[in-house]
Design brief:
The chain has 7 helices and 2 strands. A two-stranded antiparallel ribbon has the order 1-2. Helix 3 crosses helix 4, helix 3 packs across helix 5 and helix 5 crosses helix 6. 19% of the residues are buried.
């Protein structure tokens, strides 16, 4: 498991922005870039700071998309980090496919104590779907 597999939204954000004088962007500067490309929602600097501080906030798709835009991060990475932080789900590849080995990437949301080895039915379902097998 890599650090990216366990990062929370707070981890992701706090390592990219910080206090004045640190050389990292301030929350005011981050807020200027944090615009949801779908709805034009703009979170406040205070809300962004609360998320990065690990405080409980109302999380929603426009906020997650705005955060992804602010830091120029892939949306799926920000979504997975938010799922870890706010609902306690782990999201990963049950097949542990090495990066670049296959064009298809499968991600499954699951309880943190589960692994691909603990999900035989899920793995079988995905295997059959990839092979084009039909249950009917």
């Amino acid at each position: 498991m890599t650090p990216r597999d366990t990062e929370t939204l707070a981890d992701l954000m706090s390592e990219r922005a910080g206090k004045r004088g640190s050389g990292l962007p301030t929350w005011e500067q981050v807020a200027q870039r944090a615009v949801d490309p779908v709805t034009d929602y703009r979170p406040s600097p205070n809300l962004l700071w609360k998320v990065a501080s690990g405080q409980d906030v109302k999380i929603n798709p426009p906020l997650v998309r705005a955060i992804a835009a602010a830091f120029s991060l892939p949306l799926d990475r920000v979504q997975m980090a938010a799922a870890r932080q706010f609902i306690g789900l782990q999201v990963d590849d049950p097949f542990d496919t090495p990066v670049g080995e296959d064009d298809a990437v499968v991600r499954v949301a699951h309880a943190p104590d589960r692994t691909g080895d603990n999900m035989p039915a899920t793995k079988e379902f995905l295997r059959r779907a990839a092979a084009g097998e039909d249950d009917g």
